[in-house]
Structure formats: C-alpha cells, structure tokens
Design a protein that fits this description.
Blueprint (H helix, E strand, L loop, with lengths): L5 H15 L6 E6 L4 H16 L2 E9 L4 H17 L3 E6 L2 H8 L3 H20 L3 E3 L4 H14 L3 H4 L5 E4 L2 E4 L7 H11 L9 H4 L1 H15 L5 H30 L1 E3 L2 E5 H5 L3 H13 L10 H12 L5 E7 L2 E6 L2 E6 L12 E4 L4 E4 L3 E9 L11 E5 L7 E4 L6 E2 L8 E2 H7 L4 H4 L4 E3 L5 E4 L3 E2 L11 E9 L4
Parallel strand pairs: 1-2, 1-4, 2-3, 4-6
Antiparallel strand pairs: 5-6, 7-8, 8-11, 9-10, 10-11, 12-16, 13-14, 14-22, 15-22, 16-19, 17-18, 19-20, 20-21
The chain binds adenosine-5'-triphosphate.
Adenosine-5'-triphosphate binds next to helix 2, strand 2 and helix 5.
Length: 477
C-alpha cells in the first residue's frame, strides 16, 4: 500500500470519529498506548483532535515486564509524553513472567486478557465509554492471512472490527485502514517519539513470519495484496454482521429455552439455509454462561447434520465442556447434560443396512444378509428373523427402548407395549435398557431379538428377496 499524504488519512480518521460519535465535545476516551509507533501516532492524532474540539484523553499503559529495563523505559516514555501533552496517565505492572510461570497460561492470550482487564478497569474508573487502540491495516491483513492459514470459517475473515462493544465498553480502532508505513511516516514528520519493541520476533513468532516472509512474497504476485486483505475483511465484516442479525432473528423465532439449554424442532431447523443453521448452532453454543471452547467447522457440520438428517432419529453427541446434543425424533436439545431433563436415556441408536455387520455398542452383533426369493425360516431360533425385503423401509435402526414403545407382535392383532412385553418375558429391569430393538426407517419396531418378532414384512411365497438378520448377544457387555 502506498503512503498517502498525511492530511488525507488524518482527515478521514477524524471525520469518521465524529460520525461514530466518540469524538464529541466534552467526551472522554481511554487510549491504549504501548509506546510503539502505532499507538504513539494514535495518541498524537488524539491530541490534535482534542485541540480542535475538547476531548479528555486518559492514557493507559500496561507494563507486561517481559523485557526488564526496556519495558520500564517504554512505560516511562508513555508517562512522559502523556504528561507533556497534558493528559491523564494510568499504568499497571503486570509481572507477566511470574504470572505465566505460576498459571502456565498461554503467553499471548494471557497478556492480552490481563491488559484488557486493566484497560476496562481504567475506563470504568474514569467513566469512559470508549477504548481506543492503535490496530492498523497491517495488523488487519496479517490477522486475516493468519486465520486463513490456520483455518477459519467466513466469520474469521472479518478479522479485526473497527468498533465492537465488549463488556459494555466500545473498543474503537480508528487506524484500521492506515498502514504501518503511513504511521511511521507520521511519527517521523511530526517528531512523535516511540519505542521499538526488540522482542517482537520471539513473542509473535507466527505473526512475524507472516509479516516478514509471507506477505512480501505474496506481494510479488499482487503488489496491493495487503490492501485486498483489508478489503476482504471489511466485506466479510458486513456479511458477518448481516448473518449474525439473521441468526438472532432465527434464534428468537425457533429456539426454546429448556433448563440451561435449548430445544428446537427438526422440521423448522431443516427449513433454514445451511449457512444459517451453522450460525444458529454457534449462537446457541455461545449462550452458555461458562466460556466454552468454540467448535470447529467440521463439528458444526456434524451437529447440523445430526439435527436434520432423517436417520438415525436418536442421537447423542458430546459437545465438550459438559454440553450435549440430543436428538429425539423431531426435536433436538443442546445444552448441559445434567439439565437435559430427558424423559428417557439413549444408550445407543445405530443404523444398519444390508450386508452390514454391527459389533459392539448394541451389546451384541448383528448380521444382515439378503437372499433371493422366499427363504423359509426356522421359528425355533429366537436370535434370527426373516423379513420380506420389499416391505421394509431401509436402512434399519438398532436402538434401546424408549418410553411408550409399541409393537405389533407376530400373531397378535393390534399393538402391545414393549414395556409389558418385557414384564411378561420377565426381563430384569436392569437389563431392559440394553435389549436391542430393531426398527425400520419409518420407526416401526420389527424385531426384539430373543423376545418377539413383529407382524411386519412377513416372508410369503410372493417374497422376491428375503432379509435375514442374525443376532448374537455379546455376553461380555
Ligand atoms: N502494553 C500495552 N499497553 C497499552 N496498550 C497496548 C499495549 N500493547 C498493545 N496495546 C494496544 O493494543 C494495540 C494492538 O497491539 P498489538 O497488536 O501488540 O496487540 P495484540 O496482542 O495483537 O492485541 P489485540 O488483542 O488487541 O489484537 C496497540 O496499538 C495498543 O493500542
């Protein structure tokens, strides 16, 4: 990106500040100043602005104390400039090396977290509604590219937002469209002092490789590559904003709170565009009161699929941090496991198709074989059943019992409660949840191995294909 004449971009930044409402008469802002050229340029610009229209500027500096005397010198520089320019100065010594050793947290995220906590505290103390930082166009380009390399959904391409309210405080990044080069130029021309962070290379290793190696390489193919990344971020921000808005609407329309979790109907959810489905899941997952790790794109897809696909109708997915997705027929629940308040518990539900062999999970082993013509069955083997394949809605599902399960037993007119059949057959209560039940795609109970076959899909002389299902109980389970 070329260097624009200084007045061009400063005028632009100021016009925007006025429009966005944070540069107003008698207003006050907290300026986060590290002492580097970006935030010192920002501070100088704020000074110019306050001279044109009174604005209280609180300069806040966090000394991470990573670099001993160098860190202290930076803090002193910021303090001195703030004093010279007649601004309030606030600082904190974060003692990050000791803190990290004790907590074992990640250096960058812990530093950021503690720094922002301090900045928010200062804003509260001075009754400021705005926090201004020196993020610039190069930061934006690097952020977007880093996310692309690491893997991101579209929302990640939005990069750094120029305005965002966090914890009731609006974070403003007025320099997001201004390049590092322009800011350095500004500092030199206006005699703005700044510190150079000698440890940048170690602390932002990946960012530095992107900055010093990758971007220059890509600029050989497109000299305005950084600019295009900044534009990409801006267009992604607009799209993201819109989608977020739509997701909120959908949330209000079709998501019902249930305990500490949420319920939604399959039919309604399936009617949403897939893009909206994923957003909605994200929104629901974000609703948890405890911070949860965000799931990756593939996991989102898996969740959306589990909630929409016709089979299996009963699913339980572990979402991490104690959260689950439970799909029961037409309804799904997403939320903490303990407050799921399900009327029943699913141990398993697995689909079976012809020539499939199922071992484990169901507490036994199923084998499905297709035979041409009508195969006479031996009625004496309770662990084998034959069905007219043409009469079945495939694939089949093997699951544990559910309350209210009804079956139409072979040789009986009408239906019978599976519960009663267990009682009649004297199946011990403790084992009932583990008895496999074979249903077809329509949810009809076809067979309870060892117990009863249904009257559905009987093999007759007219049967073209016979499906033989054999079950062997796994005694170990
Ligand atoms: N030690 C500090 N004290 C006060 N403000 C700081 C400090 N370090 C950074 N900032 C503010 O944050 C801006 C961005 O800095 P930098 O890119 O180093 O941070 P980062 O760790 O990537 O932060 P972010 O989480 O805000 O993206 C700076 O321009 C400055 O406004």
């Amino acid at each position: 990106m070329g260097v624009r004449p200084q007045t061009d971009w400063t005028d632009e930044v100021m016009a925007r500040a006025r429009e966005d409402g944070w540069w107003r008469k008698g207003g006050s802002v907290v300026a986060a100043v590290s002492g580097g050229p970006d935030s010192m340029a920002l501070l100088s610009l704020l000074k110019t602005m306050s001279e044109a229209m009174p604005l209280t500027i609180i300069v806040a500096h966090a000394n991470h104390q990573f670099r001993g005397a160098e860190s202290d010198a930076e803090a002193e520089l910021v303090a001195r400039v703030a004093q010279e320019w007649g601004m309030i100065f606030e600082s904190i010594e974060l003692g990050m090396p000791d803190y990290l050793e004790e907590s074992g947290e990640n250096l960058q995220s812990a530093s950021r977290e503690r720094r922002y906590a301090f900045l928010e505290e200062i804003a509260r103390k001075h009754g400021c509604d705005f926090l201004v930082t020196g993020h610039h166009a190069d930061d934006q380009a690097e952020t977007v590219l880093m996310r692309m390399i690491r893997g991101t959904a579209v929302s990640g391409l939005a990069g750094i937002y120029p305005r965002r309210i966090v914890h009731g405080l609006e974070r403003i990044r007025p320099l997001l469209r201004i390049t590092k080069c322009e800011l350095l130029e500004y500092c030199k021309r206006n005699g703005v002092p700044y510190a150079v962070d000698s440890s940048n290379a170690d602390r932002h290793y990946f960012r530095n490789a992107v900055r010093h190696d990758l971007i220059p390489e890509l600029e050989r193919y497109n000299p305005r590559f950084k600019e295009s990344l900044v534009r990409l971020a801006e267009s992604a921000q607009a799209d993201d904003d819109y989608m977020e808005h739509r997701a909120m609407e959908a949330f209000r329309e079709g998501v019902r709170p249930s305990g500490q979790g949420f319920r939604l109907e399959r039919r309604w959810f399936r009617g949403l565009h897939v893009a909206l489905q994923r957003r909605l899941i994200k929104l629901i997952l974000n609703c948890s009161s405890t911070p949860r790790q965000m799931l990756d794109f593939l996991r989102m897809e898996e969740i959306a699929k589990a909630m929409t696909q016709p089979l299996p109708t009963t699913i339980r997915l572990d979402l991490g941090d104690g959260w689950v997705l439970r799909r029961e027929y037409e309804e799904s629940y997403i939320g903490p496991e303990q407050s799921a308040s399900m009327p029943f518990h699913f141990a398993y539900a697995v689909t079976l198709d012809v020539d499939e062999l199922l071992i484990g999970e169901t507490g036994g082993r199923f084998e499905l074989r297709l035979h041409q013509g009508s195969v006479p069955g031996s009625t004496s083997n309770p662990n084998e059943a034959l069905f007219d394949y043409g009469e079945l809605a495939m694939p089949l599902t093997v699951r544990n019992r559910l309350p209210g399960d009804l079956m139409q037993p072979y040789g009986l007119n009408g239906t019978k409660k599976v519960q009663d059949m267990f009682v009649d057959a004297k199946v011990p209560r403790a084992l009932r949840d583990f008895v496999p039940i074979v249903t077809d795609r329509d949810g009809r109970i076809l067979w309870i191995p060892g117990l009863r076959r249904s009257g559905h899909a009987l093999v007759t002389a007219a049967t073209a294909f016979t499906l033989r299902i054999a079950y062997a109980e796994d005694r170990k389970q």
